[in-house]
Design brief:
seven-stranded mixed sheet, Aminopeptidase, 11 helices, globular, alpha+beta, 2 domains, 18 strands, about 350 residues
Amino acid sequence: MDKIRMKDISAEVWNQLLDKIKGASFAYTAESILFQITYANLVIANESYIMMRDKKPIACVCLYITENKNERTISWNGRYCPAPLIDHDLSYKTQEKVCKEIMEDIQQIEENYACIKTMFKFEPIGNPEHLCKIENYNYLIKYGYNDTSSLTQVLDLRLDQETLYQEVTQNHKRGIKKGLKYEIEFLDKDSVTQEDVKEYKDIYEYDAGMVTRNSELWEQYYMFIKAGFGILGFAKKDGKRVATVIVTKYKNTAYYSSYAEKTDCLDGITVGHKLHWEMILYLKKHGIKFYEMGEQVFGNYPKGTEDAKLVNISKFKRGFGGYTVPIFRGIKNVKQVKACTQQ
């Protein structure tokens, strides 16, 4: 099997090849990879590639080399890289064979860069109906990775609007009704401007109370929205934009990216429920079948702690319905695995 490295081709060619691999999601697009590399100030090399067989793309492998305090890892700034994507149309036996070959190749790259750790996570939105057998279990653990899996929430937008609304919690329904006074607008590749994304940036920084790495990269957001991989939403009060949301999308799937608001401009009337609900309806109307709301965190933690905040955010996301699924993840201690295999 041959490899086509991302650094040897254009973003356009990369996306054309990716388009032929069933199960792909936004995380594997050239726009997403370039955004992540730009965002990550510790990434020193991009070894991502697409695997070919008989001149057809059959797998996509995202590999970022991160260096921090003289230690190198295969990770996204110390976070998870998307796990290798293997074409869902291949037979299970072939998928397993391709997976083994990819893992052997990753081992070689670990050695080439003297990496001490490798981190991967699956993209559940690429397998929302669990039809791809190789993604229905955490195959990483077969190759020495420690299981660090988490959970996420997915909405099935094939359901009719009435059924979708029935899944929304009563508290969220009250929030949606309270937000009726807000005017909602959505912008796509044909309508978004740089000024619109700058306004997203301004609201994000207003909400955060500071300039963040996320807001600094507003031009990257503009680029992937213009490429057709994102939707920008605003809520307006008295003609002024007071809240914003960005969703990434790929074919018939979408992923909630970020939300921000000018809380002190809302006069105590919640806007998030209304803006998110209208985004759900917009995505449904425009052919999105599955919408991933994001990671789910459970547990009891002291008020005011970061963990307690994550639990509350997770509860807000679940309030729109859907179902909870695993995000398979794994971390490999390279030296430890190598020592075990040599015994």
